[in-house]
Amino acid sequence: MADLKIQPRRDEDMSACVNALSAVHHAGLLEAWVALDGREALGHVAITRTAPGLARGTGLPAGQLASVARLFVTPSARRYGVAQALLAAAEAAAAACGLRLALEVEDGGKAAISLYERSGWRHVGTAPGDWTTVDGRTALMHAYLAPARNP
Ligand SMILES: CC(C)(COP(=O)(O)OP(=O)(O)OC[C@H]1O[C@@H](n2cnc3c(N)ncnc32)[C@H](O)[C@@H]1OP(=O)(O)O)[C@@H](O)C(=O)NCCC(=O)NCCS
Question: Where are the beta strands (DSSP E) in 19-133?
Answer without folding.
Answer: 29-37, 40-48, 65-73, 100-106, 122-132
